[in-house]
Amino acid sequence: MSLPLAGVRVLDLTRALAGPFATMTLADLGCEVVKVEPAGGDMTRGWGPFDADGESLYFQSTNRGKRSIAIDLRDARGRALLHDMALRADVLVENFRPGVLHELGLDYPALSARNPGLIVASISGYGRGGPYEDWPGFDQIAQGMSGLMSLNGDAATGPLRVGIPIGDLVAGLWLTIGVVAALAERARTGRGRLVETSLLGGLTGLMTFQAQRYLSLGEVPAAQGNDHPLICPYGVFEAADGPFNIAAATEAMWQTLCRVLDRPELLENPDYADNAARMRNRGALREALCEAMRDRTRAELTRTLIAAGVPAGPILRMDEVFTDPHVLASGLVAEIARAGRAPLRQAAMPVRFGPDAAPDQAVPPPALGGDTRAVLAGFGFDADAVGALLAAGVVRAPAGGTRT
User: Fold this and answer.
1) How far apart are CA 91 and CA 34, in angstroms?
2) Nearest to residue 12, comparing CAs of 92, 81, 78?
3) Which UniProt keywords apply (predicted)?
4) Contact 205, 54 (CB under 8 A)
């Protein structure tokens, strides 16, 4: 079964995380993604931890489904080659510092003049048009400047970052949405366009009701820790064997929770008469609920509460997540075949296109320059031209040949 974006050729000039995550998502959607790397490779090839073969797990986590070509962009011939490839691509994705694309002669006005259907997609730290547009973009800085960190943690901890580079990843997803929209438009008009997002904009775009509280009412939301900012009881509670979540989001769920825990007196207590009262007395209510749950396990409570109609679930570690029977059965762990090696297990692309679609059709992350010959041939360069580029050191390929 072909994937929705099969036949779309993407030239991937990105490094680190935000851009590579976007282009991996495009590859998962069916695009032919050509990762253009400098002679020394993407910087993340040197970032640990490393697997038993010395390959970066960081690099592997965001580069499946791609092919790699190594080009010396310090050489004018390498830059000319990249320009020629851009004229034969559908999408070019980059996350250089502002101005670099123009220095390479690959900015959107220059390329679209010769390839009107080209979509150029860019991720920056802060976006264009403001006083920070030239600042370098780093995930944790963006987490702080977007307001996200001010909402995480509590009074004891102070602001907390999210445990993954959420600013990078969200920017990658926003960019993917923009590229897909531009492809849909191009199918109608025949013309591409410039698509841009930023780490800062990607996170502020997620603030939803917390942003609306300030923008409409002038309220500045405070960090709530693991409690829902507007609903109680909704958050983390302690069972006999550790923490788990309960989401009693409605009055009926609150009443059911009290009955399941055999605490009818809580329903009669005026301190908990409605959601507003429960929010005011949240600390005391949490203590009472945890006391009622201290002799029951997370698994027992989860099953009992869900059966009664109250959403609940355990807080799992990575080892528990990726051995969970539902995670495995629903295809959320990909196993990517590798020649002569054990399959590469990864968090899978979570979008499916029908019940009969294969959950994973990806190829493993590429070796540096492992596809140089095949990529150039696919872009229309004949064997003599490829040989000349290799001989001159403009492009690199491993001695063992091209991956098949």
Assistant:
1) 10
2) 92
3) Transferase
4) no
Q: What is the DSSP letter of 15?
A: -
Q: Which two three-digit tokens encode residue 118?
A: 């080209």
Task: Choose among 368, 376, 394: nearest CA to 43.
Answer: 368
Tally of CB atoms within 10 A around 318: 7
Integer CA distances (angstroms), 64 to 22, 32, 71, 287, 293, in order: 11, 11, 20, 46, 44
Catalytic positions, please?
168
35-90 pLDDT, tens per residue?
Answer: 999 989 999 999 999 999 999 999 999 999 999 999 999 999 999 999 999 999 99
Separation of alpha carbons 148 and 145, rounded Å: 8
Q: Which domains does the chain have, with CATH numbers?
A: 9-206+330-396 (3.40.50.10540), 234-316 (3.30.1540.10)
**For the whole model, what pTM was predicted?**
0.93
- Cβ neighbors of 62 (< 8 A, separation 6 or more) are 17, 20, 21, 24, 44
14: region left, alpha or beta (phi > 0 left; psi from -120 to 50 alpha)? beta
